[in-house]
TrEMBL record:
Top-rank lineage group of the source organism: Eukaryota
Alphabetically ordered keywords of this record: Membrane, Transmembrane, Transmembrane helix
Residues spanning the membrane: 77-100, 370-391
Keyword Membrane included in the entry's annotation: yes
Gene name as annotated: AVEN_9371_1
Protein name in UniProt: Uncharacterized protein
Length: 432
């Protein structure tokens, strides 16, 4: 009697995959398939078919093992990736929030800049009206012998009052409160002074001093670079320089009018101080605004006679007043004064346009930057929410445990060959 060595199902697996088969054999899933394949003896003729059947089982188990591993590892990988992306997007959202915070401050500063600029622009209109009223009042005082007849000058006063009232009504919402109170005080002081202009004791020199002091007071109140203690990027420097130069130019024109129309002695030092100061201040202002310089030079080239008559009066004051009292010089000078006032007005408008475009660009740039940073922050927040949702779903899936593999496998369809292999007819046998 011969006895053949017992063989197991593991002997029929490929040699390089027996470690895999041994590992699977320890699990319930493999036992479900291989318990009926434990063979004690195998006929040589039956080895090949059984080896083929076991090969089908091996390939099926290998496929099932890979699919189960993928089902178990995919949620973990997804949770890890979404969590990593979530941390990255959170930092992006934090950075976007910081940028939005800074941009909000810049936009608020831009709004304050716009508000202060328009306030300065309106106050510049007030100073121009004061200068025009100064020259008109001095000319009126030297042209009439009866100061009680104030009908002609009253028209100029009404123009100034209407202009200030209109400014307060239309721009009260964008004005600084202290400036509005300053305008009220200004109107009160003008009203008191106008009541005393018709007095016999009043003279043009005191009128010039009053208006110059009033202009300096307005400049000190409204054209400080550190408005309300806030250091804003306001283009106040070129505008302040020009307005100061404009106020001094009006004082020079008023003193020149007194010089050519009367025998009253004027303070020559004051006259040249106003003339030199206005030229230097306006030239410094033009350094920041080339467009205003171009306009000023263009206007002077269009009226070359104005500059000639102004220089003639200056030379006459220096030489000893040989031309003083000449009617022709007085008429030419008064015409030149009118042209100078028109030049100042046009140049001021060009300066306003240049600075206004700068302020508008600043405001628009701040608004666009804020919109861009806000969009980044919103996208980052949405991405964080999505990453958290994906992570929570993956963790929830993992917390439910592995699926019932045996139940899943019992529902898997088997081929005819696999059914025959797994049937109970395959019993261990022993051959003699």
């Amino acid at each position: 009697m011969s006895y053949q060595k017992k063989a197991t199902l593991l002997d029929y697996f490929p040699a390089d995959n027996r470690t895999f088969a041994q590992a699977l054999y320890k699990t319930n899933e493999l036992k479900h398939y291989v318990l009926s394949f434990m063979l004690h003896a195998v006929r040589p003729a039956s080895v090949q078919p059984r080896r083929t059947a076991v090969g089908h089982v091996y390939r099926y188990l290998l496929k099932r093992f890979d699919m189960t591993a993928q089902l178990q590892s995919t949620p973990r990988h997804l949770a890890f990736i979404s969590l990593a992306l979530g941390f990255l997007v959170i930092w992006t959202a934090v950075l976007a929030g910081v940028l939005v915070s800074r941009t909000l401050k810049d936009e608020a500063s831009a709004k304050e800049t716009t508000k202060v600029f328009y306030t300065h622009e309106d106050v510049g209109k007030v100073l121009f009206a004061l200068g025009h009223e100064l020259v008109s009042t001095v000319d009126w005082m030297l042209s009439t012998s009866d100061k009680t007849k104030v009908d002609n000058i009253v028209v100029t006063w009404k123009i100034t009052n209407n202009m200030m009232s209109k400014i307060k009504e239309e721009t009260g919402d964008r004005w600084v409160a202290s400036v509005i109170s300053m305008l009220d005080t200004l109107q009160e002081r003008l009203t008191v002074f106008r009541e005393t202009v018709s007095d016999v004791k009043s003279n043009p020199l005191s009128t010039v001093k009053f208006y110059l002091d009033l202009s300096d007071w307005v400049l000190q109140r409204c054209f400080l670079l550190d408005y309300a203690g806030q250091h804003l990027p306001v283009p106040s420097l070129p505008y302040t320089l020009f307005v100061r130069g404009m106020a001094q130019r009006f004082g020079e024109l008023a003193l020149g009018t007194i010089y050519v129309k009367s025998d009253m002695p004027i303070n020559k030092s004051e006259f040249f101080k106003l003339r030199t100061g206005s030229e230097e201040l306006m030239e410094a202002s033009f350094h920041f605004t080339p467009r205003a310089r171009t306009k000023w030079m263009e206007l002077q080239e269009q009226e070359p006679g104005v500059q000639k008559v102004m220089e003639a009066v200056v030379e006459d004051i220096l030489s000893g007043s040989s031309l003083r009292g000449q009617k022709e010089l007085a008429n030419n000078y008064l015409d030149g004064v009118k042209e100078q006032i028109a030049m100042l007005l046009l140049t001021k408008e060009v300066l306003n346009a240049s600075l206004s475009s700068w302020v508008e660009r600043l405001s628009q740039r701040s608004h666009n930057t804020l919109a861009f940073h806000m969009s980044i922050a919103i996208v980052a927040i949405v991405a964080v929410i999505l990453c958290l949702i994906v992570t929570s779903c993956s963790c929830s899936y993992l917390s439910k445990g592995q699926p019932d593999v045996e139940k899943h496998n019992s529902q898997m369809p088997y081929s005819v060959l696999e059914k025959s292999v797994l049937s109970s007819n395959m019993k261990p046998q022993c051959y003699m």
